[in-house]
Design brief:
Blueprint lengths: L2 E5 L6 H14 L7 E4 L3 E2 L1 E4 L2 E2 L9 E2 L6 H17 L4
Parallel strand pairs: 1-2, 3-6
Antiparallel strand pairs: 1-4, 4-5
Length: about 90
């Protein structure tokens, strides 16, 4: 499973998003490891296997109004875990 946390430089919401992501991964019993990318992204964004947990379709550098939520992160992790189990991966 590939987990990414994307942000623009100096994003004021990055630290809370990082902490929330770590907490959600721990709740799922998953390694608290993910890739952090800083660049021209909607910020902050959490992607699970390339899909934004909030359903966004990309876009350029901007501060998000729809910040990643625990509910959305948990749902994406659950779905990815089920898919991995069904596909015999992971």
């Amino acid at each position: 499973m590939l987990i990414e946390l994307r942000s623009v430089p100096d994003c004021p919401n990055l630290v809370p998003a990082r902490e929330l992501l770590r907490a959600c991964l721990a709740e799922h019993g998953l390694p608290v490891e993910f890739v952090e990318l800083v660049g021209e992204y909607p910020s902050p964004s959490v992607l699970v296997n390339g899909t934004d947990v909030m359903g966004a379709n990309g876009g350029g550098a901007s501060c998000r109004l729809d910040l990643p939520t625990a509910v959305a992160i948990r749902a994406a992790l659950t779905a990815a875990t089920r898919r991995a189990g069904r596909d015999g991966v992971g």
